[in-house]
């Protein structure tokens, strides 16, 4: 029971951190368009990240409710998140002012977010919680 509570709290905290990362990504997107003069409506990366974020929140909800679909989709989504991060940096390098919000999200929230994802993966596959995800 205690492990389940920790699991659910980590999911909630991770979801809140993702909201901060999304806000930060929006700020980066807006500052890049002011530098490059690009159009936000034709940006494929922003659209992909929006779809990814919706799916990620859905999978987080599935994990919170101990649904097998959440367990099946979580690890691939974590890998996609990492791949999207590297590809977006290669395709569209960050050119923004390094303000306090940037420092907070980039150096504190993002690392904690990735650690939380690793903890959740560990709990999903290597703890007694894995039995909670069996089809009912």
Describe the protein.
This protein has 136 residues and is an all-alpha fold. 79% of the residues lie in helices and 0% in strands. The mean pLDDT is 85. It is elongated and about 45 Å long.
Helix-strand makeup class: mainly alpha
Tell me how many strands there are.
0
Distance between the termini: 19 Å
Strand content: under 5%
Write down the Rg.
17 Å
pLDDT < 50 runs, ≥5 residues: none
Q: Helical region count?
A: 4
Q: Which descriptor suits the 3D outline?
A: elongated
Order of helices and strands: HHHH
The biggest sheet, with number of strands, parallel, antiparallel or mixed sense and barrel status, is: none
**Quaternary structure state of the chains depicted:** single chain
Instruction: Give the overall pLDDT as a whole number.
Output: 85
Can you give the helix content as a percent range? over 70%
Features:
136 residues; mainly alpha; 0% strand
In short:
By secondary structure, the chain is an all-alpha fold.
SSE arrangement:
Layout: H1 2-36, H2 44-64, H3 68-91, H4 100-126
Helix pairs in contact: 1-2, 1-4, 2-3
């Amino acid at each position: 029971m205690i492990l389940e509570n920790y699991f659910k709290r980590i999911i909630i905290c991770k979801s809140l951190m993702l909201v901060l990362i999304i806000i930060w990504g929006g700020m980066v997107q807006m500052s890049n368009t002011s530098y490059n003069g690009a159009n936000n409506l034709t940006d494929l990366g922003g659209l992909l990240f929006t779809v990814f974020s919706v799916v990620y929140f859905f999978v987080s909800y599935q994990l919170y409710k101990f649904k097998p679909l959440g367990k099946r989709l979580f690890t691939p989504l974590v890998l996609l998140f990492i791949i999207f991060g590297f590809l977006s940096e290669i395709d569209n390098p960050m050119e923004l002012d390094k303000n306090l919000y940037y420092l907070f999200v980039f150096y504190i929230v993002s690392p904690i977010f990735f650690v939380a994802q690793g903890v959740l993966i560990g709990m999903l596959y290597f703890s007694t919680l894995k039995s909670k995800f069996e089809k009912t």
